[in-house]
Amino acid sequence: MEILLILMDIDRNIQNPVVPPSRYITEMTCSSEERLAKLTSSTRREKMRPERTLNMLKAVPDIVVFQNYNLGDVQMIPISILNTYETSKPIRVILESTTVFSITRNSGTVITKVAPGMTYQLGITFIAHEQKDYRHFVTVVSEGESFVIPIICISHRPLLDIPDRISLPPIPVKTITERVIIVRNIGQTSAYFNIYCSNGFSTVPERGCLQANEYIQLMVKFQAPCVGAYHGRMILTYETEERLTVMLEGSTYESDIFLEADEVQSVDTYISLKRKRFVKLYNRSKHVINFVWKQFKSVEIDRIENQKCEEGFKEIKEMETPKYANLLHHGIIAGGDANEVIYERIYQDELREFRSSDNLLFLNPNWNICPLTGEVWPDNVCTFIITFAPTEAIHYETAGYLEVSGKEERLPLKLSGTGKGPCIEINVCELDANDIFLCSKHQYEISIRNKGYIPGTIAFRPQQLVFGGVLTCKPLSNHLEPNRFASFVLTFTSNVQGKFVEEIEFIIQESGEIKKIVFLGNIVCPLLSFDIKEEVNFGKVTLGYPVTTSLNLINTTQVPIKYVAKFLEDGIEPAISCIEYASRADKPIIYAPKELSFEPEKYTVSPNYISRGEITLLPNVPGEHRKFLLIIMWDTPKYSISLPIEYQCELPDIICETQDIFMRGCFVNYVYTRSITIRCHNEHSGYFQILPYDIEGPTEIVFEAKPSEDFIEAYGVKEVEINIYTKHIGQSTLKVYISVFGGPRQIYLCTIRCNGQGPVVTVPDILYFEEIRTLKTATQPLRIVNDSPVLAIVTVTHNKKSCCTISNDYLTLNPSESLDLEVRVYVRAPGYYTDKILFTTEQGESQSCLVKVTAVGSSILCAPEIEPELNLGALLTHRTFSLNLKFTNMSKKYHKIIWSRIKKLKSFRDDPSLNEGSVFVLKPNVFDLAPDQSIECMLSGCTTKIGHLEEDFYCHAVVEGKRDHSIITMFLLIAEFVRPMLQMSHEELHFRIDNGVDKTTAHLTETVTVKNISKLDIVTNIQIEDPFFIVLDSERIVTNIQIEDPFFIVLDSERLNLLEWHLENDSELNMNIEFVPKSKEKKCVVWDGMALRK
């Protein structure tokens, strides 16, 4: 196909190029001479290889084509090879040995040299031995270039006479139009072809074979789903892979087709019965239409639903494929691969069957449309029967969609209707039972009738009764045919006395309809009595200790009576005994205790029977009490009896015999131990608890009692040990309280009094700092000692504007502990300084330490720091070194400064002799500095000598307030000067060019490596003389190259005569040296050159 596009001068890069059949016939019927004329035409654009105007060899033609030849024909095609180079080129033409092709040259030599602008002529001769296609090639070889000239022999081709464009008449949408075309093979050989059409077009047949001069009828069909104009292509593919394109045209429009209604509403219909409605489809068009009722609105929804079904088939296949273990075990299959092949075949069969059938026709369990598919003739009507068959007593809504050829969209039809259940009635609406006995059973019969046209089932709905009782029904359901009767028997019993009104419900199962009956009546019941007529009196009781008494409940009736016992005016929380209270850690407080209980609490007394019960009292609230026992019968408080209960609850009387605990002298936070005696003065036992010291809020005295809580018997004695310490210096007083289980929250026990004393801390009186340097921090330790048996907390303070600071201003010292505190001093000017550090002890006395400082040095700060020594390390000779120095006056006095190499100045003024003989110079060396003022100076130097260098610099200053100058600081400058050194990989480079008869050999390029071994970074200049050049990658050429005439730089070819390059320490530079001779004469010439580096 690519050769065909080149012959037809069509761009090969175009995707799906269009080749009309008429153009193909024209090209395939050309003779070899006509083809040669087309290939050598100046208007031809498509070439076998890209061409340039100059510097290449051009072949005309660039492809040799023989076509329409017969057996034994001898044909010859001439070829011209043009040299567009500026120099002569030797050309060699190679043709592999073959019996079909031969080459004819003007000269007998194999290699011919062609001058610039000249051509080399040769000819290709072809002899046809068989009627078939041939392919061969000629290779043209020259210096630095070679290319191939293809030789193509095209035998006779099948030629189908078919139009380039086929137009079909307009048709209604979704219908098929046809056009028959006579296709004849006008070629001299058989035509095997395949046809593919796009965009709704198709052909019959799609493939075939035509002998020479035979013809067939080709039917072109067109069908489109939407209205509009359509353009498609018919791709005709021959056996020889040529692809021809026929343009197809067609258009569609909508026909006058409609339903008489878009909605069908059915009247209410009994379930299991059917109703029919009729809807007409009108065809006002002039063609036969086909219709089908669909379930969904559009083709796109159909496609989605079909895809879901196909995915379901695939999921079943993937799920069933691994289940081959059982089949493999019983020898049904040979292996897992066989099982996978079986299920793949089943899956493909299911897909094929699913896709071949129409699975999305209208389908609904309650609606039916007849017919689902069919056709309607022009100007005719089709009547559809719509059948509604409800299965439940609900409202139904759905829609069907009519797919009609001639309409672009499907015609919707909304379907709606309501199902109706059986009509069953009950003979009564209200059932009055009047007065009935408690817990006795009563039965009532009700009648039901089916007044409808379909059978139905009515069932009793059991439910909980609102007013109590149990209601049952026999039978639970009845099935009635139309106009039939049946009955239900209701059984009722209740244990709740009084009037009641209940709703009894029945449900019709087919429709879910509820039928109700109102059931009402009145229930009466008997009561119990006590054997005690007045009250129960427990007398005096001890709080937290239980007491018990008994009584009888009498049933004098013939009916068993069920009761529940409750107490009126009693609490709701469980009461707690004294022993339980002592065992619990949380010590709960019961605000509303339930002190009384009755056993059994719930019971059923048999007819004419006496039941014995016990009342248990667990008192939790002191004082006189009157409560009531309430016996509730028949699950309602309306029928109950009560009995009064009286008792008096008392507490133990506890007194402390040691009323006052006095401690005359004690350290704060130090624990002391004392003992007290507690006595009970009445006949009631109890449980006491000594309350914590902070019961009334924060206190100055802290104590701990052992035991802090315990039992005390009637008239008993308890010894208690108390650990005491104070947190306050001086007199402090604390009252101790006790609580008794069930009694008041606080009862006064005794008083504790303490006289507190704080911790004692000692520090040195004076701390000396002698001859410290200005502008530098000096530190010294300061020892602090706690001389007391208690913890000491010390706060350290000093003047914020002083010269000293401390490492920690808050200290905690254990008893008898000593600690070193770091004191730091920083001054800006020389002189004498004093300061005081104050040590404040919490709850103790304050101490102070005097700090004395003697400072020496200057107030001038240098950045970077140069005092006492500035070591510059290794430096290069012949290169100026510079360092920026910043001087700042940190004092509050004005300074006049001179930097000099002279230690003793005769006069304080600027003199050039101050730095005479020095390698390094500080500029400016004379300046004035006000307080907090800064100045930047430059320290620079350069030498040609190598070796070690040391120079002293002195700073002379006149300080404000003084008349004479003095040396305030100095520094020693140290440097090591070294010489820059480069190492070359070659001392000499040799290049050579040898010109021979047939070829030329040359050695024109050498690689040189330059390495920096100076131990410092350097910048090197490398210079080379013409005709030698430095060749670097264009990305590596530096921009700051300096060059002068007669040297030059050729950036296009990246050749340099002068290179400036920055080399880091121990790094290398790889460069190529190229030899470009000026003379092109073929004689012995010698050039000498030299590469210089700086």
Shape: flat
Work out the count of structural domains. 8
Q: Please report the number of helical segments.
A: 7
Query: Beta fraction of the residues?
Result: over 45%
Distance separating the two termini: 66 Å
Helix content percent band: under 10%
- Based on helices, strands and strand pairing, what is the structural class? mainly beta
Whole-number mean pLDDT: 85
Low-confidence stretches: 1034-1053
| Fourth CATH level, the homologous superfamily of the largest domain | Immunoglobulins
Q: Quickly give the CATH architecture of the largest domain.
A: Sandwich
Question: What does the radius of gyration come to?
Answer: 62 Å
Indicate the CATH class of the largest domain: Mainly Beta
Main beta sheet = 6 strands, mixed
Number of strands: 86
The name CATH uses for the topology of the largest domain is Immunoglobulin-like
